[in-house]
Design brief:
heterodimer; A: alpha/beta; Rossmann fold; about 30% helix; about 30% strand; B: alpha/beta; seven-stranded parallel sheet; five-stranded parallel sheet; elongated
Amino acid sequence: MKILVTVKEVAEAEDDFEIDGLDIDERYLEYDLNEWDDYAVEEAVTIAEDGDDVEVVSVTIGPERAEETVRMALAKGVDRAIRVWDDDLESADMLDVGTKADILAAVVEEEDPDLVFSGVQANDDGFGATGVALAEVVDMEWGAVVNDLDLDAEGGVAHVHRELEGGVEELTDIELPAVLTIQTGINEPRYASLRGIRQAQRKPLDVQGLGDLGLDASVLESAVSRTAMFEPESESDVTVFEGGAEEEAGQLADLLRDKGVVEG
Amino acid sequence: MTDVLAVTEHRRGSLRDVSFEIVTAGRKLADAQGGDLHLAVIGGDVESFADELNVEGVDTIHTVADGEEFNHDVYTQVVEQLYADVAPTTLLLPNSVNGLDYAPAVAERLDVPIVTDAVGFDHDGTLEVTREMYASKVATTVEVDADEAVVTIRPSEFAKAEGEGSADVQSFDADVDESAVRSTVTGFEEVGGGDVDISEADVLVSVGRGIEEEENIELVEALAETLGATLSSSRPIVDAGWLPKNRQVGQSGKVVTPKVYLAIGISGAVQHVAGMKGSETIVAINTDPNAPINDLADYAIHDDLFDVVPALIEEFGGESPL
């Protein structure tokens, strides 16, 4: 069995930041493996450890900088990785959902996995749409926001829980092959061991351009573009307590007593 | 061709709030485009759902009597066919868990661009969607340079439409290919039960990622105990297994409306806010003055929780464990 895990290196903004044009100024961004993808990697690696002959391959669309993130996935137990990038991608403004799905679909066709895991959404742009769009492009079945997975590979079905709103989970049987978007909390992602980190350096990491995947720059054409970024206007009329922890705790205590909170 | 088609959502026999919010959003967009608002309700008791949905602003309601509960394979097929019939400019879908389980597939199938999680939009010849990025720290304008678009709207962002409507209710016969239905919903499960019901509490001490380590949880436990309050948390604390699911406030956890909500080390992600914005008084203790929780809080302390919380425990005669 083969599991393909899509991973993304995401940017996180520091507490204080400045906007430069259409994005946050690079100086205020830190890069990390997308939180949801960490759970997707863990889920795949766990299945590989518990089963016989399961290969886990990760794919990312991203620049050379993203290799650090990809190596982290390899260190956690992914067998090999693919990074899609070239000059055309480098000069593209924004990859919309359709573009990402088309690029990942080319990788799915090449790899022919039984299962694809992606995170529910990315921490940075939060579109939450790539996994399901990908399933449609490659004609696989899918399930979004999965927080429990019981895989019956022989029966060709994934018994999943989908985390709905309000403390309700939907129990669904999904035919394989399928794309599952993985929700945080489905497992407890491991930390990479030193041994894993050393091994990761020797694991294959292939860089493929659009041409290698049988695509060309036309896949990057998009009707969707970001035209502005701004700090949302605060509707806040918050009263801020100041003067150091002791003083602030005192003011808060007065407020709480005023609201009827007393010593328990 | 300037109409808007919006799809509603129901679960276990009830329409969800977002079904009425999408009417408000859809009406606004239809007015901007100079078209009609079509509403679709798929599966379940569509007749009675249509009665309920016949509120001010809706021009036509399409009822599609396929299935009981949501199934993305059915919804994808039905919406694709209804889209061809209505021929709208914009397809509006909820950015709910189920919305995200079919909207991207529909967009792909229709070969129409998709923008998700809209919090606002404008249409002045070109569709402009407002959406947030970087965990709500910034907002962006996204332009869709196409004749048609699929847009999903963030739940709880638009007001619920009310008032008596005069929509034309039409039944739509969809041709669902059962062989393309490759997933089956077998049931539902309530999670987060147990001995504590945080939605009943008057005072909640709620803890988030800012607590950093599992062993620090005892600090907020001590505060809750000292104040006679109930302990709750944001999602990451439950994901990490530091507190049980029944303590989780937010979209996938409980909706709470206590008299006092003390948010400690919680940034205020939109999914969390959805669960606590109805609280009477909100106090935030968070080092980041730009954290979204500050937009909602009535009172805030922008200082280290590890200094403030022990001092607060002592103010109330308790003893800080840290």
